[in-house]
Amino acid sequence: MSNSRTSWKKVLPAAAVAAVMTAPMAAAAPAQAQTDETHTVGLTVVASGLKNPRGITAQSDGSLLVAESGEGLPGCAAGTRCLGATGAIVKVPFGGAKSRVVTGLPSTAVGTADPAAVNASGPAQAVRDTANGGYTVLASLGGPGTPELRSSLGDAARTLGTVFRTGDGKVLGDLVTHEATLNPDGGDVNGNPWRFVQDGSGFLATDAGSNDVVAGPGDGTTSTKYLLPKNGTAESVPTGIVKKADGTLYIADMGGGQVGGSRIWKVPPGQQPEVLVSGLTNIVDIAFDWKGDLLALSYSSSSLAGAPTAGSLSEIDLSTNAVTTIPTGDKLKQPSGLGVDIFGCVYVTNNSVGTNGQLVRLSY
To answer: Which of 26, 9, 48 is nearest to 361 (CA)?
Structure first.
């Protein structure tokens, strides 16, 4: 992948959102990563046969939710984009077998000669909707993330590129229309919503196409909360986002898929983003560990201008900003989502492109 948004959509699903408010870039020295050689990471497959698995949400009962972007329409001709109803939400109880608690969600993909290698866009993250029942889902669309692409797929695609509720189908924020209308970074119109956190009755979502974080109060309207600046000439590509109990946000950006281009931003309540650490590579998700520090998941250790190499995991000590690389060898293959359950166990969605994805638990 290069530093353009066009190439980003080839690796992970795409869709949209935005409105304008530029965040100043704070100075920060590149992260000086140390490798923790005292632990050997073990990997246990908790669930397999997942179809383009994306984000992980840890629940208070010890279970995990995994968003499946699906496989588009099975049998779709190679080179043709099709819409299917193969998106899903998977629940994995601690120590139990996976079950799809929601099925039939929209999923779009371009058909491939090898159906098992299809790269679909659809549900990318899901959380329990305790107020209304069902789930709140962020769904990507695929590039170029425009209203025209979505319309071409038919009315059944209306929730792609949005944050919506499964209980009643209500769209809480249409990120595709937002990007097409406002285009906050002034580039090509191509949205790619990736992760979100709940914010009161609404949400804050990262958009890896618009390079911003978008706020939605939950009534269908949206506004740009932060516009993350480029890292030199590389697009910021916001990905993971988490929020502490005091309201402090942490936001990861991929830095255009360049080696050393990723940053993690800190946003105290009422303030603008400032760079917490830089010098990381291809960070696609972040999560708090059992100590309250940050874990950061790398999709690939090499530039995405070429084929992705093995991913990796890093820990950021929030008291010192020190970065420690946790040795995972070549065990992480195109990882996408990161989660930590209530017991402190760390999980990753692995082999996340195709229909043979896994949810794995790391031991270190």
So the answer is: 48
d(CA 303, CA 336): 16
As a CATH number, domain 5-363 is 2.120.10.30
The encoded tokens of residue 308 equal: 């992705």
- The single-letter DSSP state of residue 23 is P
How high is the mean pLDDT of the chain? 89
Higher pLDDT, 35 or 205: 205
H or E stretch at 171: strand 171-174
pTM over 0.85: yes
Separation CA 338–CA 264 (nearest Å): 15
Measuring CA to CA, how many Å separate 116 from each of 80, 86, 189?
A: 16, 14, 30
Domain boundaries, the chain: 5-363
H helices of the chain, where? 5-11, 147-152, 175-182
Reported as type and span, the H/E element at residue 266 is strand 262-267
CB under 8 Å, gap of 24 or more: what pairs does 327-335 form? 327/35, 327/36, 327/37, 327/39, 327/40, 327/41, 327/364, 328/41, 328/43, 328/362, 329/41, 331/41, 331/43, 331/360, 332/297, 334/299, 334/300, 334/308, 335/284, 335/297, 335/298, 335/299, 335/311
Nearest CA to 291 out of 324, 257, 333, 265 is that of: 324
The closest alpha carbon to 352, from 49, 84, 34, 146, belongs to 49
What does the block give as tokens for 323? Answer: 């970065």
Please give the angle made by the CA atoms of 299, 300 and 302, to the nearest 5 degrees.
Answer: 155
Instruction: Look up residue 188 and give its amino acid.
Output: D
> What pLDDT is attached to residue 37?
54
Q: Using CA atoms, how far apart are residues 318 and 292, in angstroms rounded to an integer?
A: 8
